[in-house]
Structure formats: C-alpha cells, structure tokens
Amino acid sequence: MSDTSALSLGDERLPALELAFALVREAWEGFDSARPGQPPPSAESLDLLAQSLPQTGVGALHALKEAERLLDESLAQSRPRFFGYVGSSGLEVGVLAEALSASHDVNLASLAAAATMVEQQTIGWVGEFVGFGRVGGVVTSGGMVSNLTALAVARERALPGSRRMGLDGRGTLYVSAEAHSSIDRSAELLGIGSESVRAIPVDADRRMDVAALDAQIGADLVEGRVPIAVVATAGTTLTGAVDPLAQIAAVCRQRGVWFHVDGAYGLPAAATESAGHLFAGIELADSATIDAHKWLYVPKACGILLVRDPDALRRTFAHDASYMVDAAENPVDRTLEYSRPFRSLKLWTAFRAHGAEGFRSALESNLAVARRLADRVRAHADLELVVDPQLSIVPFRHVPSGGSIDAHNAELARRMQEDGDVYVTSAVIDGMTVLRPCITNFRTTDEDIEALIETVLRTGRALERGD
Ligand SMILES: Cc1ncc(COP(=O)(O)O)c(C=O)c1O
C-alpha cells in the first residue's frame, strides 16, 4: 500500500494494533482480579501532563503506551468494585465493536446504508427488551440528551409552532421531587424555564404521588398554563425508586399530556423476572429514555430515546438545508445532533453476541447481589439500611459510637475513595448523608460486596479511632 500521509501509521500499523489489543486484554485481566479503584497519577504521568504541545511526534507505539498508563491511573468504571454514581462496565464485545465502528468513522447524520438500518433495528430491540414496544426513536449521547430531545418533541406537540416562535411562558413540566436534574436543565434549554418544572412529592416508597400530580395539573390548567409533559422516573438516581407508570399514564391520557419515562438508569430491569412488575405501564408511555451505557453495560456513549410516534421527531427537528438534498429525508431531521458516531453498533453486536437471555441473566445477577448487600447491612449492628432497594442502589450508613453520623459517613466515603479498595459515592437522603452503592457492572459478585462491607467497617472504625 502506498500510504504517504504524515498521519498514517506506516510500518507501525501492525505492531500498534497488536500493542493496543494486548493493552485491552491486560486491562480486562486487571478488572477481573478486582484491583483498587483509583490509584493516584504517578510522578511520571504528572510530568507528561505538564508538557506543552509536542511539535514532533514520538510515534504511535510510544504514544499508545503513554495513553495506556494514563488510563490505568484514571477512575475506570469497568472495575467490579466501582460502586459510585450510576456506573457501567465497558462490556467486552462492546469495546471491540466500538473500535471497529471508529475505524470506519460512519456519520449517522445522513443516510449511511446498513448503519442507518442497524440504528433503527437496535432501537426496536431495546423497545422490545424493556416492553415499550418495537417502535422508533433515536440514538443519543446519553440520558441528558435523550430527555432534552423527548421534551423538545413534547413542547412542539403541546404548543405547536413554539420551535419557531419561542415560548410564551405558559408551559409546565411535571416530575417527581427525586427526578434527575437533566429535566430542570432541559427546561432551561428549551425556554420552558426550571421554575415551570413542578416537583411532585413522593410517597413512602419514594414514588411520585399520583393524586398530587393530578391536582397540580388541574390547578395549572385553571391558571391557563399548558402542561407539556409528565416525566416519570423509572429508577431514580438517588435510590432506584420506580414511579407508578400505569397510574401516571392514566392521568396523562385523561389530561392529554405527553408521558415521558426517564429510565436512563433503571429501565433495563423491566426485562427481568424479579423486578419487571415495577415497570407495568411502560407500554403506555409516549417516549422513554434508556442509557445502554449504564445498565446495558456497553461503553459510553450510547443513549437510546424510544418514541412511539417517530414522525413527531421529524416535526420537531426537520430543517431544509441546501447542502443535504440528495435524500428526501436525512436521519438528522429526527435528532438534535448533526454529526453522530455509529453508537448503536456496540449494542447491536452485544445483543447478537449474548442474546436477550445473556442480558437478563446479568441484570438478575446485579439485582440479587444488591438484595444480598441489603440483607448483609440489615444483619450488621454497626450498619443501617436507609432505603430498601427497589433495583440495584442500596443506600446505607455506618453508625459510629458517637459524634455526627452525617459527618462520619461523608468522611468515610471520601476516605474510601482516596484509599481506593472500593469506590463508593455519598448522597443526601432526607437530610441524611449516606453511602450509596449502585451495582450496574456485570463483573460485580458477592465477593465484591463482602469487600465493600469489610472496607466500610474497617475504614469506619479507623475513623472512630481517629486514625
Ligand atoms: C435517571 C437519570 N436520568 C438521566 C441521567 C443522565 O444521563 P447521562 O449521564 O447519560 O446524560 C442520569 C444519569 O445518571 C440518570 O440517572
């Protein structure tokens, strides 16, 4: 091959390929042996990171080795003892498909032959998997953008022409008091305004109070406001609570309001036998967000927005562009983004490789591990379970013999993150600072849960002693 560009790999191509895949294998083997969560950057890396723009290259092999070291010193969510936020796991076949996809650099903005069909097929499979129905939608960069996209569609439906003429301040949105902040942020970006987002109180199970929702919509209608959408959360980020979808759907149907489900974290569990019943009513939603890069395990980024009437996307986003006239309609007419990578390939490949059964079994295993963690916490005198898990988030705290329990648990989370044996983030629930492990990694087992408990007890006692 005559490859003369200064940017081609030339003779380094084969060794670089071999090196890259050897490094991936090494990383996977390291994850399996449950290495610590967050080693601090080495002096060598800090030195490299202080350097200015290199004018001449060091070559691909050298640069890849540097990149590998920096990755090794970064907080990898792929590790089975990463319990922070809502993590994922860098599913192995997904990582490989991602490399393949990048090699072809397909752009999903315009018609891209098979890739365009793969995207739609993958969306259909996800809809089927979670019981939404095999409909249409769009692949996004994640939950934030999926929610924003759905609410743009709902806004145009409730207030036709608002995409061109702007809003008049009448629109309102409804969420539970424990919804993700991406809804407030969407309201701000869409000109609805976060002050028009009604935070509906939650019940004892931390699920949206449906009577309060109906009353709030009624009161807003009396005042001449225009309800744009109700957003139910199917797996809140704080505790994993699933709002009562069927009851909310009934209110939306009766009031003629768009029903969106934010299932960015929790919706995959709709496919399981043990938790599926919590999601009854998902088949009644107008749209739903689900992040494949969370609990469908593939590497970031891969968000899915399911939309029952996909033409509503076109009515919201289509524009005439004199530089895109070769097709009657381009995929970009149904999305917010222009250039879009081939994000769905990794999920498509994973469904083909493991089948829905493989995913169901990994999800059930995560749910079972979370339930066992809750049981272990309940049974220990020095630990307190703060919320019974509905899905795979298990908020609990270590109870010190004296002093402020909130300050103790905040410091405990910080200390454990620094030590790096396990990675847990803290959260505030009803004013209480808690440890909030979330289990969304197919690699996480009971052994990792035992390590978590042992680390919490050991570190908690050291803090009490003032060590
Ligand atoms: C319920 C919920 N919605 C939306 C998001 C935002 O998703 P992303 O980070 O993919 O934009 C999250 C993130 O954790 C979430 O838990």
Terminal Cα span: 63 Å
**Approximately how much beta-strand content do the residues carry?**
5-15%
CATH class of the domain at 103-352: Alpha Beta
CATH architecture of the domain at 103-352: 3-Layer(aba) Sandwich
CATH superfamily of the domain at 103-352: Type I PLP-dependent aspartate aminotransferase-like (Major domain)
The number of helical segments is 15
Global mean pLDDT: 95
Q: Which ions and ligands are bound to the chains? A: pyridoxal-5'-phosphate
- Give the topology string: H per helix, E per strand: HHHHHEHHEHEHEHEEHEHHEEHEEH
Query: Helix/strand-derived class?
Result: alpha/beta
Strand order of the largest sheet: 1-7-6-5-4-2-3
Q: Tally of extended strands? A: 11
CATH topology (fold) name of the domain at 103-352: Aspartate Aminotransferase, domain 2
The biggest sheet amounts to:
7 strands, mixed
What does this entry look like structurally?
The mean pLDDT is 95. This protein has a 7-stranded mixed beta sheet, with helices on both faces. A two-stranded antiparallel ribbon has the order 8-9. Strands 10-11 form a two-stranded antiparallel ribbon. It is globular, with a radius of gyration of 24 Å. It has 467 residues and is α/β, with parallel strands linked by helices. The chain has helices at residues 13-32, 43-49, 60-72, 92-104, 114-130, 143-158, 162-165, 182-189, 210-222, 245-255, 292-295, 311-317, 344-379, 405-419, 446-465; strands at 136-140, 171-176, 197-200, 226-233, 258-262, 287-291, 303-307, 383-385, 396-398, 426-429, 432-435. A hairpin with a 2-residue loop joins β10 (426-429) and β11 (432-435). The chain has a domain at 103-352: Aspartate Aminotransferase, domain 2, CATH 3.40.640.10. α1 (13-32) runs parallel beside α3 and α4 (92-104) packs antiparallel against α13. The protein contains 15 helices and 11 strands. Pyridoxal-5'-phosphate binds next to α6. Pyridoxal-5'-phosphate (PLP) binds at residues 86, 142-144, 180, 182, 233, 237, 262, 264-265, 291, 303.
